[in-house]
Amino acid sequence: MTILYLSGPGCHGGKILVVPLEGSHWVNMDILIRALHDRGHSITVVRTTKSWYIKEDSTYYDSITVSVTEGFDEEFIKPILQKLFDIERGKSSALNFFSLQLEAMYFIPKSVDHVCLMATTMFEDKALMQSLNESQFDLVLTDPAWGSGIMLAHYLQLPLVYNVRWITTGEGHLTLAPSPLSYIPLTGSGLSDKMTFSERVKNMLFYLLLMAQNNMILKPRYQAVCDKYLTPKVDFFELQQSADIWLMRVDFVFEFPRPTMPNVVYMGGFQCKPAKPLPEDLEDFVQSSGEHGVIIMSLGTFVSEVPSDITEDIAAAFAELPQKVIWRYTGERPSTLGNNTLLVEWMPQKDLLGHPKIRAFVAHGGTNGVQEALYHGVPVVGIPLFFDQYDNLLRLKERGGAKMLSIATTNKDTFLQALQEVLHEPSYRENMQRLSRLHRDQPMQPLDRALFWIEFVIRNKGAAHLRTESYKMPWYSYHSVDVVVFLLAAVISVVVISFVVIRYTCFKLLGMKKIKHE
Amino acid sequence: MTILYLSGPGCHGGKILVVPLEGSHWVNMDILIRALHDRGHSITVVRTTKSWYIKEDSTYYDSITVSVTEGFDEEFIKPILQKLFDIERGKSSALNFFSLQLEAMYFIPKSVDHVCLMATTMFEDKALMQSLNESQFDLVLTDPAWGSGIMLAHYLQLPLVYNVRWITTGEGHLTLAPSPLSYIPLTGSGLSDKMTFSERVKNMLFYLLLMAQNNMILKPRYQAVCDKYLTPKVDFFELQQSADIWLMRVDFVFEFPRPTMPNVVYMGGFQCKPAKPLPEDLEDFVQSSGEHGVIIMSLGTFVSEVPSDITEDIAAAFAELPQKVIWRYTGERPSTLGNNTLLVEWMPQKDLLGHPKIRAFVAHGGTNGVQEALYHGVPVVGIPLFFDQYDNLLRLKERGGAKMLSIATTNKDTFLQALQEVLHEPSYRENMQRLSRLHRDQPMQPLDRALFWIEFVIRNKGAAHLRTESYKMPWYSYHSVDVVVFLLAAVISVVVISFVVIRYTCFKLLGMKKIKHE
User: Fold this and answer.
1) CA of A491 to nearest chain B CA: how many angstroms apart?
2) Would you say residue B514 lies in a domain?
3) Angle in degrees, CA B214, B218, B220, rounded to 5
4) Nearest-CA residue of chain A relative to B259?
């Protein structure tokens, strides 16, 4: 068995311009940037004065800070999350769905405006653009959930690589690969790949809503920036599809099987590594759990607190268990807290998930946490809060590795029952262990695959041969509507003409006969 | 850079049942079988008493010989090829196209009948089926251009891996992955991925013809065997799509970019290896060419002779060149043969293509030869004869690596002109060298990738998680026709009801007013 790519052929010392997205997306991008730095590439990160996670100073990247007056920062995102959270808890599920959509209608234009402001500020800064041009980067690496990196790559005429899960039009695949709505559930729909008729109707309606949102909210904003700064004139959605390589943050152990394209490279779980030893005090706490083992709970980066009534219920439920619990929690200490529960402000989540004493993971269903649970084969009790969290957890649930609770109905009893089920029904653990085995059974580690393809783009100045240009066709040609109409017209013409000719001939013959008879 | 899979985790000593296809398809399968044998797997090959390429005795596989009275052997195939050849030469291109289709209508049922006879004979042989059942194979490896392996795998309830380029419904992808006819040219259509309106009409008509052929010729024959021997009742085309892994004998350096599926593994060029040194006499001949270098010519396994007038013209053209020529040719010695041309019955084609003195390859466009030219970066003068040869060469031509001639118009002048162009216009060689670099720039050798995924299926008893089951949906659900009709009906109902209500209300109001006025 020969592997062509052990230390990697050439192309060390590439120059990579990174246009990242904030929050958990940056957590991902940062891992990729460190790995690229370790392989000898020089990295320049574009951030804004309002950047929140993305620091200006770093030992492994240079940064360019774009000055903006309005930002996608903590003050911007926290109230939105709080509102989503309230909606999630307050109403019936049908009302929820529409309230959430309405909230999105407010949230999305605000964030697109921010991205467009960032892009405009860059393009207006002639000195910056000249310096970027002169820097002769090899490629732009961006998270296309934000469009600024896409437009910048086009401006600088550089190859484009995505670190992607979402784009403006939804889940990354949706724009790129044919996605029959009959078995590709849209994100946010809460559906699986096996749908009933009414679920398929819901999926279709959701798609129509998404398309309306794209064409009415996103397109005009991005297109205005394209029209002003990019020549020759280019359609933003075409630009979005023209990336050389899409490094997709899923794999098919996690995602339902679906059509894909040759330039999509799956790197789901690329952030996962074997667990490192725990700090001594934490290891002591974990070992004190004995045969019962440990449960860990975290609701992600954004949400350190949930409303106090739920907190009290969760703490009370934990207190009834023989397991030890480590809970990432920064709010007021719940009065019902048991002796078995350790509250922490931060925990080495990846290393805990890989510890042999771990029995279950209570999680909100962010992509990173779900991938890490899957990598280590730990069963999950999921409390999805917003965004893609429900859909992420659904994928584990469908494979029998997770139990899901709704935040609206979570109380001591439901929570305790869910935990007991996941702890005592062996299938949850067995299924997660099976997924873990499948995920690890790959010819190459996902991060190595991602690095290979980034360097492939540097070596070959793009990956045009992997990229269809069918997106440049008008929709009626792409879907062969013009051809079908033409062929139908041809068939109808032939039928009509034949009918007329036959009728005329019969008439003539009959006429002749009549004359003869007379 | 860590590679997970250097010596391969476990699963040596798998038991693999191979149901191959004859001719050049066997040449491919044989390479895979030898590699599997070298990795410690035991192989059993199913052949028939009429098998032509597939030998009964081998040092690296056991064989099972199915006794059939009619076979897909030399006597069967040669007259068909001769007829195709005559059509190809004799008529205008439009007439050609229809004559070839008519010939296919005769050829296809004959070969399907043969495959069904093979399958029926196997299923009727109770002792054989019992022994296969007891042998506890790990998987069936088959070339699905023939359906017998597919049905056998279902009968034995074994995981299924394809070594595939063609299936009964055309190019392997066509059934499996969504294939918009607007940019996916059907094989045999002679079209590229960028089509004019009239080319798209041709592609669509070709598709309709293919579907008619499938449903009228193939389906009834295969389905009859399924209905008789397989329980529970199963649809043959569903069975065909249910394979765990499709090892596809193309890659996207060769093939136009197109949608694909997660369980398709590309192994195009898996048969290619660095060239070995030539036999001494051949090396001497090659070296005697000096700075001018060598041209090699071969029209593949099936066709050792072309009509004598063309042979005379080709020989005369070669005689005018300063290059040396090695020509695989078994017919009568052409009278116009120059001193620079060596006629051989067989040549080490792969090693010659990798020789630094090689300048051009005159080829018929079989997949194996085209892939080898691409691997070694040698420009091609192509004379396609039949089957997929035109389409194979078209892919090189579109990338600027080949010049194509039609057998109908090949004479001394056209042939010489084509050769001169390929020899003296540097872009042909540059383009083939570029394709070669792209093809070799992979994280893993194609053969290793194929072996990995075969062993993955052994380790995990299939690859269900990579396989969509959407093919089980009725076509109107798959294409959301039912959903669209339902939604349209709903919209129309709302409009009609609103109209009626408004009309009724207006009428009432007007009526009231009238009454008041009166």
Assistant:
1) 12
2) no
3) 110
4) A261
- Domain for residue B210, yes or no? no
For chain A, give the mean pLDDT: 91
Taken as a whole, chain B contains a residue count of 518
Residue B40 forms part of a structural domain: yes
- Domains: count for chain B: 3
pLDDT value, residue B470: 94
A200 vs B: CB within 8 A:
yes
Predicted confidence at residue A307, as pLDDT, reads: 78
Please tell me the distance from the alpha carbon of residue A149 to that of residue A140, in angstroms, as a whole number. Answer: 7
For residue A295, the cross-strand partners are A325, A360
- Residue B124, pLDDT > 90, answer yes
A346 near B CB under 8 A: no
The secondary structure of residue A241, as a DSSP letter, is H
Residues 6+ apart with CB under 8 A from B364: B298, B299, B300, B303, B382, B383, B384, B385, B389
In this structure, the answer to whether residues A388 and A493 fall within a common structural domain is no
pLDDT at A89 over 80: no
Q: How far apart are CA A39 and CA A45, in angstroms?
A: 17
Give the nearest partner residue to A181 out of B180, B440, B480, using CB atoms: B480
Helix axes of A426-440 and A412-424: crossing angle, nearest 10 degrees: 60
Residue with tokens 């380029």: B165
When CB atoms are compared, the residue of B5, B263, B483 closest to A204 is B483
pTM for this prediction = 0.93
Domain boundaries, position B488: 479-507
Q: Do B466 and A257 touch (CB under 8 A)?
A: yes
Model confidence at B105, in pLDDT bands (50, 70, 90)?
confident
Does residue A310 register a pLDDT over 70?
Answer: yes
Place of tokens 């072996």: B451
Question: What is the C-alpha separation between A242 and A150, in angstroms, rounded?
Answer: 9
pLDDT tens readout for residues A392-436: 999 999 999 999 998 888 999 999 999 999 999 999 999 999 999
Q: How far is CA A495 from the centre of its chain?
A: 51
* Cβ(A126)–Cβ(A102) below 8 Å: no
Question: Is the reported ipTM for this assembly greater than 0.90?
Answer: yes
3-state secondary structure B269-309: CCCCCCCCCCCHHHHHHHHCCHHHCEEEEECCCCCCCCCHH
> Do A260 and A361 fall into the same domain?
no
Q: What is the rounded CA–CA span in Å between residue A102 and residue A484? A: 38
**E strand map for A101-199:** 139-142, 160-164, 166-167, 170-171
pLDDT at B7: 40
Burial of residue B108 (CB within 10 Å: 0-12, 13-18, 19+) is middle
Pairing of strands B166-167, B170-171: antiparallel
- Note whether B388 and B187 are within 8 A (CB): yes
